[in-house]
Specification:
By secondary structure, the chain is mainly alpha-helical. Helices cover 82% and strands 0% of the residues. The chain is built from 13 helices and no strands. The longest helix has 51 residues. The protein starts with a helix and ends with a helix.
Length: 395
């Protein structure tokens, strides 16, 4: 059958073309997948190495969103241009901060010093209690002088217990009249210089980070439309409509959450300050400030603030400490069951266990920045997930 041979040749050629096309598609898929994997790894490496810088930029964006939200709230009361409303908001915040500093600066400094001394003394008491009960606290050094004195007293107590008829009193520390050597002076001077440089560098870094966040926040709040349009311009035209919806929802969510968070922080500060003052705690004002600031960090911040309050209240007696613990539980209940559901029911709806796990993860990986900014990052991720789930469901 000579007529059938060309047909078989055509089929064979077609099958070879299909195999060649399949191999080409597979090679293309492997190439694209490899490039995507490398880009994702490069993105992770970049994020890891420049995490602090990225968190600073994100904190500046949050400050800009907060200032813009307050400016919008002011615009609902008075009809003024955005720039003028932003100036009024910034001046009002500056006046409030200056009033707190000038009117309560001395009180804050005194109470901060007293709080530091109180916590140190309580830690010394905790160490002595653990030593008394046979728990090793060698890793918990609070000073060589105190350690030497306690060792001397412990040795005397052991000898007295061994021979009760001849009690032994701890020997007083013998005075040293020898002048330190040149090497000792040099090493001490080097240690002092090193600690001083660390303190200066830490202070400069903290002040620099503060001004970076402040500048970025003011820049974002002054011209929000410029950065909004620029972000959408970077998006491909095919997906620009979706990107617009997502960015708008993220902005609205962060605005509502920040306004609610500011109100919550102020209420926590006021209730803690007034409650501790009624109990009779000396450092009530500074403790109220730290409780209000730590209220920005959900769950973890409340636990840290409660531990500090109870530890500082132990110096005033067990009754004051128990009263402070009851106050802390009441403030935590007010925040968790009244303020958060009332103010943030339309802003965020994240399960507590999910949020806590995300906080711990970012806190372990990125430190204090990840712990503090975990909730707004989680809010952004949730907005994007909700949007794509809704679009897939309607498609």
């Amino acid at each position: 059958m000579p007529a059938g041979k060309p047909v078989d040749g055509i089929k064979l050629a077609v099958s070879r073309d299909e195999r060649h096309q399949g191999r080409s598609d597979l090679a293309w898929a492997i190439t694209v997948g490899g490039i995507g994997t490398l880009l994702f790894a490069a993105l992770l490496l970049f994020t890891w190495n420049f995490a602090t810088t990225l968190f600073l930029i994100f904190a500046g964006m949050l400050l800009g969103v907060a200032l813009t939200a307050m400016s919008h709230r002011l615009g609902q009361l008075v009809s003024l241009p955005h720039a003028l409303r932003l100036v009024i908001v910034c001046l009002a915040l500056a006046v409030m901060l200056s009033g707190v500093v000038f009117l309560g600066g001395t009180t804050i400094a005194q109470q901060a010093t007293a709080l530091s001394n109180t916590i140190k003394s309580q830690l010394v008491g905790v160490k002595a209690f653990l030593d008394k009960n046979g728990i090793d606290t060698s890793y918990f050094e609070l000073g060589s002088a105190n350690g030497a004195a306690s060792d001397s007293a412990k040795t005397a107590a052991d000898k007295t217990a061994a021979d009760p008829a001849n009690p032994v009193t701890p020997a007083p520390p013998s005075p040293q009249h020898n002048l330190p050597s040149a090497s000792t002076l040099a090493s001490s001077g080097g240690a002092i210089v090193t600690q001083t440089l660390k303190l200066l560098l830490g202070t400069v870094s903290a002040v620099g980070n503060f001004f970076i966040v402040l500048f970025l926040g003011l820049a974002f709040a002054a011209q929000p439309a410029v950065y909004y349009d620029g972000l959408l311009f970077l998006t491909p035209a095919k997906y620009r409509a979706r990107a617009t919806v997502i960015v708008d929802r993220i902005g609205e969510t962060l605005e509502r959450w920040l306004i609610a968070q500011i109100i919550t922080m102020f209420v926590v500060f006021a209730v803690t300050w007034i409650g501790l003052a009624i109990i009779g705690i000396q450092s009530s004002f500074i403790l109220g400030i730290q409780a209000g600031l730590l209220a920005f960090i959900p769950t973890v911040g409340a636990i840290i603030a409660g531990l500090i309050v109870v530890l500082a209240s132990l110096a005033s007696g067990w009754i004051a400490a128990v009263s402070a613990l009851v106050l802390f539980l009441g403030v935590h209940a007010l925040e968790s069951y009244v303020l958060t559901p009332l103010l943030q029911r339309q802003a965020l709806d994240i399960p507590p266990a999910t949020l806590f796990a995300f906080q711990i993860l970012l806190g372990v990986v990125f430190g204090i920045w990840g712990l503090a900014l975990a909730l707004p990052l989680m809010a952004i991720v949730k907005v994007m997930i909700d949007y794509f789930r809704s679009t897939d469901g309607t498609a």
